[in-house]
């Protein structure tokens, strides 16, 4: 990118190249904050211009920066109030609940910038995550994505789901704050594997599946793995003790978890399970606990897969710990047990 020494010749430099110079001058952190607001196509053009920017003369930089500041002065007014300032002011005047609703209407909501970054995640990965969510959460994610990406994502889903999902999206009116928090968790899951999206291998889950098929040597293999890497062994063991095996447990094993896990956690964990799984748990509950569980499941409504997985993990951790203390075995399936 060649920059003229003469300020009057700045008109020869296009807007992308000027933006590249400004970003190079403002430092990595400030430049990153600006680039985070760009659309993918814009970001690629600017990044390409920055990569081919050679040495820039000092007076050329001054000319570009001066022109930028002049434009800011001409078009800028009073600085906009930051959200933190408005949040404190409105909370004092209206109360926190109303203030949050007002701010969500003004600013959209806190998750929009994070959801905008999902444009960099492959449609296949988004579709995979979306397919495991409740239909209400699917519609919510679709509604908050840019329209072009939402259209691509809808086409990537099975045709049998597309019409129902579009109808659910059209029926959205008001979104609870808890659902927005769940939506942010889903976005985090999508973005967490972005840097290594093409290299993800579920090693711990595969190792657990392998160990699960050698019942005679499970204890020996787990002990060997634990001796080599205790943290890795814990991850493999967690995969081995998936929530699905709860349906195969003896009544005295179920009792260990029912007596310690809260009704709210059970209600969350049982979302999306079949009738057999729910019956196994309900049979070990008192009448009072069972009624509380029914009410909790109705009250919760749609719950994100991330919350469900967290609740299930909590239950299985309790079950593994208490079973080990009571010297009881956990069945993997069809009569297999793990000591």
Automatic annotation (TrEMBL):
The keyword Membrane applies. It holds the Pfam family FliG_C. Residues 125-196 form the Flagellar motor switch protein FliG middle domain. It comes from the Bacteria. Residues 223-325 form the Flagellar motor switch protein FliG C-terminal domain. One of its GO terms (biological process) is bacterial-type flagellum-dependent cell motility. It is found in: Bacterial flagellum basal body; Cell membrane. Belongs to the FliG family. FliG is one of three proteins (FliG, FliN, FliM) that forms the rotor-mounted switch complex (C ring), located at the base of the basal body. This complex interacts with the CheY and CheZ chemotaxis proteins, in addition to contacting components of the motor that determine the direction of flagellar rotation. This is Flagellar motor switch protein FliG.
């Amino acid at each position: 990118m060649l920059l003229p020494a003469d300020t009057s010749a700045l008109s020869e430099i296009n807007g992308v190249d000027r933006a590249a110079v400004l970003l190079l001058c403002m430092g990595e952190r400030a430049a990153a904050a600006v680039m985070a607001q760009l659309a993918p196509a814009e970001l690629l053009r600017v990044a390409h211009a920055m990569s081919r920017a050679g040495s820039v003369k000092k007076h050329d930089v001054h000319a570009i920066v001066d022109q930028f500041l002049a434009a800011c002065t001409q078009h800028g007014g009073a600085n906009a109030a930051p959200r933190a300032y408005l949040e404190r002011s409105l909370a004092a005047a209206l109360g926190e609940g109303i203030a949050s609703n007002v701010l969500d209407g003004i600013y959209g909501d806190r998750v929009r910038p994070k959801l905008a970054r999902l444009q960099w995640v492959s449609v296949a990965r988004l579709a995979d995550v979306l397919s495991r969510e409740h239909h209400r959460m699917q519609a919510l994610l679709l509604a908050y994505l840019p329209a072009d990406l939402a259209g691509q994502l809808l086409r990537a889903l099975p045709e049998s789901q597309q019409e129902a999902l579009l109808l659910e999206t059209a029926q959205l009116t008001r979104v609870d704050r808890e659902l927005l928090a769940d939506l942010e968790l889903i976005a985090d899951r999508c973005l967490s594997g972005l840097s290594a999206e093409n290299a993800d291998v579920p090693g711990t889950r595969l190792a657990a599946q392998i160990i699960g098929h050698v019942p005679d040597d499970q204890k020996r293999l787990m002990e060997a793995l634990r001796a080599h890497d205790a943290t890795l062994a814990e991850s493999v063991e967690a995969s081995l003790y998936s929530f699905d095996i709860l349906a195969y447990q003896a009544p005295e094993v179920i009792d260990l978890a029912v007596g310690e896990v809260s009704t709210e956690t059970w209600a969350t964990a049982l979302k999306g399970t079949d009738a057999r799984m729910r019956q196994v748990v309900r049979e070990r509950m008192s009448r009072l606990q069972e009624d509380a569980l029914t009410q909790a499941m109705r009250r919760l409504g749609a719950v994100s897969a991330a919350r469900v997985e967290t609740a299930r993990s909590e239950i299985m951790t309790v079950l593994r710990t208490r079973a080990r203390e009571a010297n009881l075995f956990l069945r993997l399936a069809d009569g297999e047990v793990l000591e």
